[in-house]
Design brief:
Elements: E1 9-13, E2 27-30, H1 31-35, H2 39-51, E3 63-68, H3 74-87, E4 92-100, H4 103-112, E5 117-121, E6 133-139, H5 148-160, E7 163-167, E8 178-182, E9 185-190, H6 194-203, H7 206-214, E10 219-222, H8 228-239, E11 247-248, H9 269-274, E12 283-287, E13 294-298, E14 301-303, H10 305-319, E15 329-333, H11 339-347, E16 350-354, H12 362-366, E17 372-375, E18 379-382, H13 390-404, H14 408-419, E19 421-432, H15 434-451, E20 455-456, E21 459-466, E22 469-470, E23 477-478, E24 483-487, E25 492-497, E26 505-515, H16 523-538, H17 540-544, E27 551-552
Parallel strand pairs: 3-4, 3-5, 4-9, 10-11, 10-12, 15-16, 15-17
Antiparallel strand pairs: 1-7, 2-6, 5-6, 8-9, 12-13, 13-14, 17-18, 19-26, 19-27, 20-21, 21-24, 22-23, 24-25, 25-26
Helix pairs in contact: 2-3, 2-5, 7-13, 10-11, 10-13
Bound molecules: 1-O-phosphono-alpha-D-glucopyranose (G1P) and zinc ion.
Zinc ion is lined by residues 103, 124-125, 288-290, 292-293.
């Protein structure tokens, strides 16, 4: 069985690199690590070797999609992958023009064109540049991130790899659309906007959204010099008639203009500023580096991601044609606020609780158990693709605003009046000493059984556990997904270490307190005791020299 065709295939000898285990969302490392000769090649070859069996042992009938968020090294990586995919015998390669495809667009292309899978080049919301981050992720036939069974096979491959396959072939001109041959593989450079736009048109009432802008409403969308620039300009200013200048930072730059392309209150400060004051636009939004995250703002008003998911679930059937049949179910990652659970209960549908990482929603969406899902980390999406989708969330909100005639703030306050409010914050402690962080987590985990009944934050711990998950569709299990502390007063604290960081360890502390008070409280005040209690319990100051988080979202 020869896995490849073509005459000039080269077999290049190589040896394993350490640390190529995919994390929460693919393999992420410093860009220079990826630029090390053989590093990217080893990983890509290990992916191909891991999934060749799923193609019946041969890629000769299969299509692979390749694109990225335009960050530094994107183009070079695309050229490497084109040669390797051709050498590994793929029939067709679909490459976004200029190497560009947002993460949800890769998912849309895989699904619409029946591709075998795709490679997404991105480190998401992490900064880009020669001294910043790069990443690669493999998505399967359903358009979603590969499940752990696949990523573990990939990892095993990276540990024993001895050769990779490539072709001698000059770089492909990525600036043009259309088809070229590389070896025996047809490489088609596609319009990165086409498939994605078609999927959005199938879900949303573009006429109603045009009417929203035509009647004078104003919006600002910050593309953060990342991949959503062209998508948002085309959709919002082009198709929906939002006024010129609606899209800020709309040109993707290899270093994202030197910023963190992370749409939260800290890194989207310019947008937050422009959304304040009586003259501010009606609606503000931003997406991250690769276009799967979203930030939603009203005038002087921030919508917390957990509330955004809940509000979208609440209004989807009535405001968005693509969901007019209603939702089959909802899903959220465990640390995400429980706001959507209450909407699901109100709608009489089930709400699933999954580990952190979008890949865990894949089976629920494929099996039709959930229609919308989301994470506290500014990720929201639905069964239209198998990635979270930033612009989709923006169009959902536009639809809700257009249909209800209310402002962003009014929509959220209505929600709080109906369902009560989950006061919620995530505190990140970045670049901690990894060994000290591991030691702290094992310490907490070991002490869990003794925690019940102990005082915390003016209340008492009712129960404490480590979250584990059994997938209801395929029965696969995932353990050690974060420590949960449930207090007698209904508050909850969750602790886990990040699986996407590239330097040291990042501790995430998720704090939530539910109150049926119409949402009038101040989040800092409501969460104050819990915040202090958890910091003391973890002895953060003693261990790391400070108990002030790097980022609060
Ligand atoms: C983070 C987020 C998680 C998200 C992932 C990829 O992972 O917390 O919700 O799916 O990025 O965007 P973490 O660093 O916490 O492992
Ligand atoms: Zn992202």
């Amino acid at each position: 069985m020869t896995p490849f065709r073509g005459g000039n295939v080269q077999t290049v000898r190589t040896s394993p690199f350490e640390g190529q285990r995919p994390g929460t969302s693919g393999l992420r490392k410093k860009t220079r690590v990826f630029m090390h000769p053989g590093y990217l090649e080893n990983f890509v070859q290990s992916v191909f070797d891991a999934v060749r069996g799923d193609a019946g042992g041969d890629f000769g009938a299969e299509t692979l999609v390749v694109g990225g968020d335009g960050r530094f090294y994107n183009r070079e990586a695309v050229q490497v992958i084109i040669r390797m995919a051709a050498a590994n015998g793929f029939r067709t390669l679909l490459v976004g023009r200029a190497g560009i495809l947002s993460t949800p667009a890769v998912s849309a292309v895989i699904r619409r064109r029946n591709a075998f899978g795709g490679l997404v080049l991105s480190a998401s919301h992490n900064p880009g540049g020669p001294d910043e981050d790069f990443g690669i992720k493999y998505n399967t036939r359903n358009g979603g991130p590969a499940p752990e069974s696949v990523t573990e096979r990939v990892y095993a491959g990276t540990q024993s790899i001895t050769r990779y396959l490539t072709l001698e072939h000059p770089d492909v001109d990525l600036e043009r659309e259309g088809s070229v041959r590389v070896g025996e593989t047809e490489v088609v450079r596609i319009d990165p906007l086409e498939d994605y736009t078609a999927v959005m048109e199938g879900l949303f009432d573009f006429d109603a959204l045009r009417e929203y802008f035509a009647s004078g409403h104003r919006m600002l969308f910050d593309a953060m010099s990342a991949v959503t620039g062209p998508y948002a300009t085309h959709l919002l200013e082009g198709r929906l008639g939002a006024r010129a200048g609606t899209v800020l930072n709309g040109t993707p730059l290899p270093d994202f203009g030197g910023h963190h392309p992370d749409p939260n209150l800290v890194y989207a400060a310019e947008l937050v500023l422009r959304m304040s004051g009586r003259e501010a636009p009606d609606f503000g939004a931003a997406c991250d580096g690769d276009g799967d995250r979203n930030l939603i703002l009203g005038r002087d008003f921030f919508v917390s991601p957990g509330d955004s998911l809940a509000v979208i679930a609440e209004h989807a059937r009535d405001c968005i044609p693509g969901y007019r049949e209603g939702l089959a179910g909802a899903a959220r990652s465990m640390p995400t606020s429980t706001a959507v659970d209450r909407v699901a209960e109100g709608l009489g549908i089930k709400c699933y609780e999954t580990p952190t990482g979008w890949k865990f929603f894949g089976n629920l969406l494929d099996a039709g158990l959930a229609t919308v899902c989301g994470e506290e980390s500014f990720g929201t999406g639905s069964n239209h693709v198998r990635e979270k989708d930033g612009l989709w969330a923006v169009l959902c909100w536009l639809s809700i605003l257009a249909k209800t005639g209310r402002s962003v703030e009014e929509v959220v306050r209505d929600h709080w009046r109906r369902f009560g409010r989950s006061y919620y914050q995530r505190h990140d402690y970045e670049a901690l000493d990894a060994a000290a962080a591991d030691e702290m987590m094992s310490g907490v985990t070991e002490s869990l059984h003794g925690l019940a009944g102990t005082p915390l934050a003016g209340s008492r711990v009712e129960r404490a556990d480590e979250f584990g998950y059994t997938d209801p569709v395929d029965g696969s299990t995932t353990s050690r997904q974060g420590v949960r502390l449930f207090l007698e007063d209904g508050s909850r604290a969750v602790l886990r270490l990040s699986g996407t960081g590239t330097a040291g360890a990042t501790l995430r502390v998720y704090l939530e307190r539910y109150r049926d008070d119409g949402g009038a409280g101040d989040v800092e005040e409501v969460l104050g005791p819990l915040t202090r209690g958890v910091r003391e319990m973890l002895r953060l100051r003693e261990r790391f020299g400070t108990d002030e988080p790097t980022v609060v979202t």
